[in-house]
């Protein structure tokens, strides 16, 4: 061991001693300074930047992302990073992470695993709705049985008793008027979605069904933003009914995700959590489009459960409720399949639920997709097929395309996402063969750049959607509505956009904003997200990993996700990700309907024109 390494170890144990003092602590005041002990290494930078650049050849929006005043030029950003000075590895990795935030796309993110070993949380989850005068306000979520351990930790660190402030109105954050402060935080730190109102709303706590089938409060990204904050605390100006205006400072609390002992030595920590693991084989398999959900709630983010009125058919996570004599509600919080939630269980739940609705004489249907992060696109098509069995396959499957590059053309010869035989040719209504989706391809000029893509393709979900549904169409499209809080992503977005665009179904978005253009009902309609690991796996399986243009393992552990397939629906020349439309209707949240999905559904039911 050389002396500089020795110095580093000593330094690390000193700086991290705060955390080391008491390894039994479950939480600790912010101390990300340990992270800054890991030195910047130029070869790590070079390899990271080179690999990202190679991976981005598959990223479908790198051209269109450059358009407009807020355009993002990823190539330029990577070039800047290649030239910049960094004090430590943390600073370098943060900079890489941040180039993807302004894309405002929930499908695209880079996260160094090295700096995710602590989860930083705020003890005040915030909510927002309009007051009796119709003005938008922000409040601290008042949930009595919520995170006692966290409250104790805040009291231990600062002496503040969090419970004294629950339910109060927040008027300023760090001296900035609260609406402005939250919007700025959402725009600069969160990204994730193109609509500014949706970004704002993602910070907030909300009320929804979990994928385990329970109604809960989700605390939102303000309380658990999944970032390393650069300040140790947040000062809130509050409006108390009894004491008027007051200020309270709440620290960020770090919840270690790993054993506290691991923080003791920089070398040990780096070896375990930052350095790549050359021995780990890829435990991967071929992924169907949109097997992955996104926009998960980071960190410990849910309250206790709460019961709603009895359900008719209750197959987790799918639920059918009867709202009134002629209105039924179908709640679906995810399209991600699992052991309990399979194509078959979905089919039988849909059959039973819709049959029950029919027997009850229910003619109006509300689809509640609140917080649905997406999942399998084939399951999405299945849902549409159950509701409207008359839609022909050619119309049901989205038109998509993939990047055509020398490497993707090689991948197309093997079992991979780029293999043409996975797709229908929409012009000929038959499956592609060989390399027929690549020749001729399509060339777009977007963002001032020429880019090559495949022909328009339709991913073949026949195997999953092959079941003949004999049931007659029961619901008329004018009696169907969708509701979400804007947090309906990926497959959920494709499904709701299809219903809005093709079936002309009314779409209701719940929003704390009383005015302005309606936000879209959903986000990240882009297409299919792929992980970097999965991309490397496909390249390796195809025997192409030694090619010059093939990305390799990152020099440090990192997660990287990005869009590899783009969908078209609204506009055949612009992908949906850049051409979404506002929801047709808005439900403005107030003190009462905020906590009550039943009230939201009732409002929608009244607005749907019921015809006998
Ligand atoms: C808040 O953080 C700043 C530095 O980030 C520190 O100087 C200050 O003492 C903190 N205030 C409280 C009340 O913890
Ligand atoms: C697109 O493809 C054409 C013909 O195959 C090729 O000449 C051109 O260089 C490609 N453009 C890009 C940006 O890769
Ligand atoms: C589709 O997008 C293009 C490019 O932005 C735009 O010029 C055109 O007006 C759009 N078409 C429709 C029907 O919205």
UniProtKB/TrEMBL annotation:
Single GO BP term: proteolysis
Signal peptide stretch: 1-27
The entry's keywords: Signal
Domain annotation Tail specific protease: ranges: 327-533
InterPro entries: ClpP/crotonase-like_dom_sf, S41A_metabolite_peptidase, Tail-specific_protease
Gene Ontology molecular function, alphabetical: serine-type peptidase activity
The keyword Phosphoprotein is assigned to this record: no
Record-given protein name: Tail specific protease domain-containing protein
Organism the protein comes from: Basidiobolus meristosporus CBS 931.73
């Amino acid at each position: 061991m050389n002396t500089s390494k020795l110095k580093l170890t000593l330094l690390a144990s000193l700086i991290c001693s705060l955390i080391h003092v008491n390894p039994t602590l479950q939480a600790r005041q912010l101390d990300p300074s340990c992270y800054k002990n890991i030195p910047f290494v130029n070869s790590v930078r070079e390899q990271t930047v080179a690999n990202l650049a190679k991976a981005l050849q598959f990223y479908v929006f790198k051209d269109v992302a450059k358009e407009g005043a807020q355009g993002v030029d990823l190539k330029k950003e990577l070039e800047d990073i290649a030239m910049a000075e960094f004090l430590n590895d943390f600073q370098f990795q943060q900079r890489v992470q941040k180039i993807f935030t302004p894309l405002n796309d929930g499908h695209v993110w880079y996260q160094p695993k090295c700096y995710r070993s602590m989860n930083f949380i705020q003890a005040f989850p915030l909510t927002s709705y309009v007051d009796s005068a119709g003005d938008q306000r922000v409040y601290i979520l008042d949930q009595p049985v919520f995170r006692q351990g966290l409250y104790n930790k805040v009291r231990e660190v600062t002496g503040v008793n969090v419970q004294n402030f629950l339910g109060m109105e927040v008027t300023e954050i760090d001296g900035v008027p609260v609406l402005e402060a939250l919007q700025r935080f959402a725009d600069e730190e969160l990204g994730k979605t193109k609509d500014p109102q949706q970004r704002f709303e993602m910070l907030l706590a909300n009320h929804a069904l979990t994928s385990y089938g329970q109604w809960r409060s989700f605390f939102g990204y303000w309380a658990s933003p999944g970032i390393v904050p650069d300040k140790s605390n947040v000062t809130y100006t509050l409006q108390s009914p009894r004491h008027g205006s007051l200020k309270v400072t709440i620290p960020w609390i770090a919840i270690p995700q790993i054993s506290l002992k691991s923080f003791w030595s920089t070398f040990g920590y780096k070896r375990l959590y930052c350095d790549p693991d050359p021995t780990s084989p890829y435990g991967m398999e071929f992924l169907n489009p949109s097997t992955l959900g996104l926009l998960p709630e980071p960190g410990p983010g849910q309250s206790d459960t709460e019961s709603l009125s009895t359900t008719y058919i209750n197959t987790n996570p799918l639920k059918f409720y009867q709202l009134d004599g002629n209105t039924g509600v179908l709640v679906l919080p995810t399209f991600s399949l699992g052991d309990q939630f399979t194509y078959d269980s979905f089919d039988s739940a849909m059959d039973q639920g819709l049959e029950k609705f029919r027997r009850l004489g229910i003619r109006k249907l509300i689809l509640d997709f609140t917080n649905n992060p997406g999942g399998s696109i084939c399951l999405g098509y299945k849902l549409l097929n159950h509701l409207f069995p008359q839609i022909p396959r050619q119309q049901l499957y989205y038109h998509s395309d993939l990047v055509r590059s020398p490497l993707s053309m090689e991948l197309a010869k093997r079992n991979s996402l780029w293999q043409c035989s996975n797709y229908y040719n929409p012009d000929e209504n038959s499956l592609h063969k060989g390399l027929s989706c690549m020749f001729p391809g399509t060339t777009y000029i977007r963002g001032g750049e020429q880019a090559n893509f495949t022909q328009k393709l339709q991913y073949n979900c026949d195997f999953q959607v092959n079941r003949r549904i004999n049931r007659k169409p029961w619901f008329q499209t004018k009696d169907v509505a969708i509701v979400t809080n804007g947090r309906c992503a990926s497959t959920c977005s494709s499904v709701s956009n299809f219903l809005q665009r093709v079936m002309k179904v009314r779409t209701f978005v719940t929003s704390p904003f009383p005015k302005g253009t309606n936000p879209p009902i959903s986000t990240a309609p882009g297409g299919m997200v792929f992980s970097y690991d999965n991309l490397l796996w496909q390249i390796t399986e195809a025997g192409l990993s030694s090619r010059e243009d093939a990305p390799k393992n990152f020099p440090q552990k990192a997660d990287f996700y990005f869009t590899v397939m783009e969908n078209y629906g609204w506009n055949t020349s612009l992908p949906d990700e850049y051409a979404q439309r506002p929801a047709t209707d808005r439900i403005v949240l107030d003190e009462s309907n905020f906590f009550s999905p039943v009230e939201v559904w009732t409002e929608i039911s009244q607005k749907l024109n019921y015809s006998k």
